[in-house]
Design brief:
Two copies of one chain form a homodimer. Chain A is an alpha/beta fold. Chain A contains 13 helices and eight strands. Helix content of chain A is 54%, strand content 12%.
Chain lengths: 307, 307
């Protein structure tokens, strides 16, 4: 049982609050807007509505009016401030002196390397990126991305904490644009936009190709295990047989096209015909209900058949 | 109720046999090797073991000793012969005369465009690619890929048949290397190999990034709906905000690297440490049990929350 400070209470910070509190940690949430901090607590309350453990979990969550109060006595700080470099830099300058140097600070940033906002800090060795996929209370993956000066012990601590609260951390050896998750997503999206731009299939058909096809295996195996099981003796045989074909495709996919305005407009039209703009909030609830049900189903199947 | 001929009884043909028979069609299976045809029936029997409908489904399946016998009276032919052009060409030359011209012939080929083995046929207009993801009895996606001379009615017929037997067809506007599924997989694999080659993460961590992260949303939404729900007003806003970031990543990902022998060897070592070669068959059973359980869970969630 330890104490976690959540700094920044948007969608990501709110979900983190639930992650740490349901795992048994005391959580103090802070946002420059007191309403945002209250909204994070309301989010947790709404997510837990009707569950027997709701009150016990909510009892572990407190709001703090100031940054000082939020981090006082914290054993870990999860920063989820807006994705703007000046904001992060100003915030970390304050955390540098407010938070005892042995306390690890993880940033939820999806796009800014830790080096860009921690370089000049006295305590920069305890800072790293701890990047979730949104929302972390439903999607377990977390990317740990050290700056060049991040101490190995800080990465170790963050990894152990993430595992302890039920997340699934991966550790990048160094900073890289987009980290791993957005680089993989970038590669898939690049080809998805290309297929629509070239008139091969619609955006809905690309979604079908994934959601009714590739996504079924990737949901529990990932791409390497998928191909490893698709050749009699494993991945080396698969690469011998199909490597040249894939290299040929890669050469056809090597033009890094920007997503043009007409292409984006066409996809926007297609999506709005499927889900009108005013129904997007409802569709997001649909997504989160699906995710919650899937996470439960996956845990059940894992108990039965193993990892 | 109609009659389907399955030509070629490897892994794909066997799974197709189950798809058509469980949907109520009479199925005649043929393979140059009578043992392979019997193995397809045995596969269906094994897959259905213990289910109440097993005997009724098996009663619809017959083996044919000759190609002539197999296609006699067929309303549709699903060809799943080996992926070698001379074999396909020789087979289609025979099908051209054996199968009445109004009967559609779909090829399971994953890599050969229909134009490469149907160009010289008198009845080439009824031929197209009907490409499943393996195994089709568990993964519903099917790619319909017409040759330049394929009749629109043939594509229409194959699409309606696939929908009727519970598959999810997408229709490509024209032939393209790798079709849609393998192009999307190629893009993701290219980046996956790149990340391992550059020492950023292990192959197992790439698998985790997908199976514990990206794959959870792609399992039921696909990449476009995923980003559409990730900005307040939808995909156009997402592209405005993040398009430049993704274009930057695409430029870093534009070198079409071959999968080098040392890289493949390293991944093979990692995979064999996770699953020794002699346990691969067992692991494939694990995969198929997971897929079957997931397909059931997905159908259940879909009944509850909708598509």
């Amino acid at each position: 049982m330890s104490r976690v400070a959540i700094i920044g209470c948007g969608v990501v910070g709110s979900s983190w609050t639930l992650v740490f509190a349901r795992a048994g940690h005391d959580v103090v949430v802070h946002d420059p807007s007191p309403e945002a901090a209250e909204a994070a607590v309301a989010f947790v309350r709404g997510s837990l509505a009707g569950t027997p453990e709701a009150e016990a979990i909510l009892a572990r969550i407190a709001t703090a009016a100031s940054l000082e109060e939020a981090v006082a006595g914290a054993d870990y700080v999860q920063e989820s401030a807006p994705e703007r470099l000046p904001i992060k830099q100003a915030l970390y300058a304050r955390l540098d002196t407010l938070v005892p140097p042995q306390v690890v600070i993880g940033s939820s940033t999806s796009g800014l390397p830790a080096s860009s906002f921690t370089e000049s800090l006295a305590t920069r060795a305890r800072c790293l990126v701890v990047h979730p996929i949104n929302p972390p209370h439903l999607i377990p993956l977390v990317e740990l991305v050290p700056a060049p000066w991040t101490a190995a012990e800080a990465v170790e601590f963050a990894g152990a904490l993430m595992t302890a609260v039920g997340q699934e951390p991966i550790r990048l050896s160094r900073e890289i644009n987009g980290f791993v998750v957005n680089r993989l997503q970038s590669a898939l999206l690049g080809e998805a936009f290309r297929l629509v731009e070239d008139g091969i299939v619609s955006a809905a058909e690309v979604d079908k190709a994934v959601a009714d096809g590739l996504g079924l295996r990737w949901f529990f195996m990932g791409p390497f295990e998928t191909i490893d099981l698709n050749a009699a003796t494993g991945v080396a045989e698969y690469c011998r047989n199909l490597g040249p074909m894939y290299h040929g495709l890669a050469r056809e996919q090597a033009d890094p096209r920007p997503w043009s305005a007409p292409l984006v407009a066409a996809i926007e039209r297609e999506r709005r015909a499927a889900v009108p703009g005013e129904r997007l909030p409802e569709r997001r609830l649909w997504r989160d209900r699906w995710l919650a049900a899937l996470v439960a189903a996956k845990a059940q199947i894992r108990r039965e058949f193993g990892r």
